[in-house]
Specification:
The structure is a single chain. The chain is an alpha+beta fold. The protein contains seven helices and 14 strands. The chain has a six-stranded mixed β-sheet. It has a six-stranded mixed β-sheet with strand order 11-4-5-14-13-12. A two-stranded antiparallel ribbon has the order 1-3. The radius of gyration is 17 Å and the shape is globular.
């Protein structure tokens, strides 16, 4: 297990600055029409999304693993990896992880524009480097009890196909290079609630860390 400083010093390249796009992808447009409505451009939410937020980057993304284009391919691809890089983080007092190959960057928490028609786990949406980015309240989505007085301080930005989402987390834990033998897949019967959002279980010493299924998170956002 590496420290954060060692991992990002040797294995991470920062994304290019000034990366912006004025054109919405199909998934971005579908998301806005679903939760804001047709003609979203003329709503207060649409106007709020015109300008990108100021985001302070904490970490960049790894560059030597590429994510598959489809969610189905993603799950099978992860299981086939001899070694999987993961970033672990705290949601309230519990630890979860996601594959590094899906992480674009980690940011300090940013402001979100609220969406009146959105489910409770959607904390809002923001314009991040020119991209429409839904922000997910993982504590709400995973039904993790909140800790009084504690705030979500970081945003893990994940991308799949033509859309990105931000996962709101309490704190970043560490990075793992996990061999296949340390990861157990198909764990639905072991994790109980929200099992459909879990892809696997990482055994790291005396820790058992749940690996979130990023593809299922995207499905949840787009289909709820």
């Amino acid at each position: 297990m590496k420290t954060l400083e060692n991992y990002f010093e040797h294995d991470v390249a920062l994304p290019e600055s000034g990366q912006r796009s004025a054109d919405l992808t199909g998934s971005e447009r579908a998301f806005l029409e679903k939760y804001v409505g047709a003609g979203w451009e003329n709503t207060p939410e649409g106007r709020a999304l015109k300008s990108p937020v100021q985001a302070e980057q904490v970490m960049g993304a790894a560059t030597d693993q590429e994510a598959p284009e489809s969610g189905v391919d993603l799950e099978s691809s992860l299981m086939a990896e001899e070694e999987l890089r993961l970033v672990s983080f705290y949601v309230s007092g519990q630890v979860f992880a996601v594959p590094i190959m899906l992480v674009q960057e980690v940011l300090r928490a940013v402001a979100a524009t609220k969406l009146p028609a959105a489910p409770p786990f959607l904390a809002g949406v923001t314009n991040l480097r020119g991209r429409v980015t839904p922000l997910i309240d993982l504590a709400c989505l995973l039904d993790v009890p909140a800790e009084d007085g504690q705030e979500d301080n970081f945003l893990i930005v994940c991308r799949l196909r033509d859309m990105q989402i931000g996962l709101r987390v309490r704190a970043i834990d560490t990075m793992y290079k996990a061999p296949r033998a340390d990861i157990e897949w198909n764990i639905e019967s072991q994790v109980g609630v929200n099992a459909e959002l879990m892809a696997g279980l990482l055994k790291a010493g005396d820790r058992l860390i749940k690996i979130l299924s990023v593809s299922r998170l995207f499905q949840k956002v787009l289909k709820s």
